[in-house]
Amino acid sequence: MKELQTVRRKILDVFKVNEPFGYAVLTEDPVTHEVRYEVFEPTLTEEEKRILKTIKDLLIEQIDVTMSELGSDEKAEEYLRSQVRKVVKDFKISVDEHSLEKILYYIIRDYIGYGKIDVMMRDHLIEDISCNGIKVPVYVWHRQYESIPSNVYFETEEELDAFVIRLAYRTGRMISIANPMLDATLPDGSRIQMTLGKVVTKHGSTFTIRKFRADPLTIVDMIKFNTVSSEMAAVFWYVIENKHSIFVCGPTASGKTTMLNCLSCFIKPDAKIVTIEDTPELQLYHKNWIRSVTRPSVGASAEISLFDLLKAAMRQRPDYIIVGEIRGEEAYTLFQAMATGHLGMSTLHADSVAAAIHRLETEPMNIPRTLIAGLNLITVQRRMERDGKPVRRTITATEIVGLDPRTNEIITNEVFRYMAKDDTYQYSGRCYLLEKIARNLGKRMKDVMEEVAKRRTILEWMVRNDIRSFKEVTEVIRNFYANPEEVYKAAKVGA
Q1: Structural Rg of the chain based on CA atoms
Q2: pLDDT tens for each residue of 262-303
Q3: CA distance 207 to 143
Q4: Do the Cβ atoms of 372 and 361 come closer than 8 Å?
Q5: What distances in angstroms separate CA 299 from CA 58, 174, 197, 216, 296, one per listed residue?
Q6: N or C, which terminus of the chain has less Cβ within 10 Å?
Q7: Residue 69: what pLDDT?
Q8: What residue ranges in 84-190 does DSSP mark as E strands?
């Protein structure tokens, strides 16, 4: 047993996260095959630790502004560096340049960054970071390896409590023993849920951070990852362009919000959009966009719920209403809006079309079937494994055709189905929604299918040419709306 414990871990990958000092290393235990996320930062000697503490103590007396008052992180870092060097000079602290650079790394990490989890916060491959208490590893959700432990942990309750209070301060909100739970948003847009002390979490303070993507995934990425096919994406494009409603369903961590954000790129550039969320996650490249976010009750201020925001949105005459997630009474108002001609888009926790319809019908949403029949398209996403790697797939795109007048049952038609055997998507051969659009536009079905094919050609051209950034994809779609034939011909020539 002793021999097994001394076996060296195998290095799988090394990432330069914050050069020249912050690195992330993925290692694997050769016996158990457990993958671990290891943070490597400069090692300080006892003398360097003493100097670091001395400089931190002196900085508290010297700094007369808060980091937030300096604006950007770059300005704050520049200011902090100058103040540290000033302290070293004024108090004649004996330290060589190499040691000072290491000390500066830790001061900037702790004052401007996120302390022990700073490398994780900077790593673009990390989606979630969670701490479940003291003396247990901080877990990360890695895009390639999913949930894995790290070598980072908090040693004492005092250290973890102070860290959680500092995180709360960075959100601009308060957490205390009287109010030990907090859902908030960090300055970079990341979502965070925190608890303080042992009142509600018996192992001590906790936090879970869902990281914000500075470079969000686009529909081109979804096609590359095979989360959807180019044919499916082209149909979604044409459906959204013609103001028909889509719900993205799936279990937790199936990529619902990411897909919803990708689909929003298909909205016409000048359409009026209102988004409604608990925490701001959706990112649109549209100017005529009202971004609404709920607010919990704080002191004398009243709560502003999704329902309140949705009611207000109806008075703003939007063309498109996008709700981050429906789960309560706000659903009824959204379905009423869709019944009056607004395009509605949202996510819903459900692992099948039948489960989605059942959730809509029952408490607390209570949507009548006559209104559910007004929803046009439901997609269901799943997280699964292929060749030992986690992937996300849209297992079905199903349209709601209508309501059977005799049985009062909702009639559905599966337009696309995921074929797990060969990792492809199969078209059923008929889409009633496209037929409806053809009738509304006074076009032949052949003409509508040609329009869908054009959009598929453009999407595949973007995939081949790696045109994938949020700005680039939206610009191509915007240009297509302005000059459809010109953009289509360019994409066709590049095919």
Answers
A1: 26
A2: 999 999 999 999 999 987 888 898 999 999 998 877 667 788
A3: 20
A4: yes
A5: 36, 12, 22, 35, 10
A6: N
A7: 66
A8: 126-131, 139-142, 146-149, 181-185
